[in-house]
């Protein structure tokens, strides 16, 4: 299911679909749009809602991949621009009063919009944000 923000919700509680008549489980993958191509990061069932994981892209960049409690996948750069540490995947997920999803850096607690990468506490700072889909 694709949301209005272009994100894809992971069906929660239902597990991945199975091909008809096969007994084998079809993998539901989280993919990121990297350099105009979809890149598979991991199986969606390996993500814990409300938590993040770090992933390495083919060009060596690190991304932080999140699955929110509503089943929507997000991905932003993993490097905290305030400290230089690769830690955003370990941050706390939340929503602003306006409903914007964010991750708070585990070090200095700056919040980053999961849709755009924009720092909510310093408008001059942002991290890369990636389109995601679950396929």
Feature tags:
135 residues; mainly beta; 0% helix; disordered N terminus; Nitrite reductase small subunit NirD
Q: Kindly estimate the percentage of residues that lie in beta strands according to DSSP.
A: 25-35%
Q: What is the CATH class designation of the domain at 49-130?
A: Mainly Beta
Can you give the mean pLDDT?
85
Question: Outline, from the CA principal axes?
Answer: globular
Instruction: Tell me the radius of gyration.
Output: 15 Å
Helix-strand makeup class? mainly beta
Biggest sheet: strand arrangement: 3-4-5-9
Order of helices and strands: EEEEEEEEEE
Oligomer: single chain
Tally of DSSP β-strands? 10
CATH topology of the domain at 49-130: Rieske Iron-sulfur Protein
Q: Could you state the CATH homologous superfamily of the domain at 49-130?
A: Rieske [2Fe-2S] iron-sulphur domain
Give the CATH architecture of the domain at 49-130.
3-layer Sandwich
Runs in which pLDDT lies below 50 for 5 or more consecutive residues are 1-6, 8-22
**Major β-sheet, in short?**
4 strands, antiparallel
Total helices: the number is 0
For the termini, the CA-CA separation is 10 Å
Query: In percent, how helical is the residue content?
Result: under 10%
């Amino acid at each position: 299911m694709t949301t209005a923000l272009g994100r894809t919700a992971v069906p929660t509680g239902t597990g991945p679909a199975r091909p008809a008549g096969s007994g084998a489980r079809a993998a539901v993958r989280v993919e990121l749009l990297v350099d105009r191509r979809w890149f598979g990061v991991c199986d969606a069932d390996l993500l814990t809602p409300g938590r993040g994981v770090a992933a390495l892209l083919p060009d060596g960049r690190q991304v932080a991949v999140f699955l929110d409690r509503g089943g929507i996948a997000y991905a932003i750069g993993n490097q905290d621009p305030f400290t230089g540490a690769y830690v955003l995947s370990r941050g706390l997920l939340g929503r602003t009063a306006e409903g914007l999803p964010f991750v708070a850096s585990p070090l200095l607690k700056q919040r980053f919009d999961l849709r755009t990468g924009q720092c909510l506490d310093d408008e001059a700072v942002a991290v890369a944000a990636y389109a995601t889909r679950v396929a």
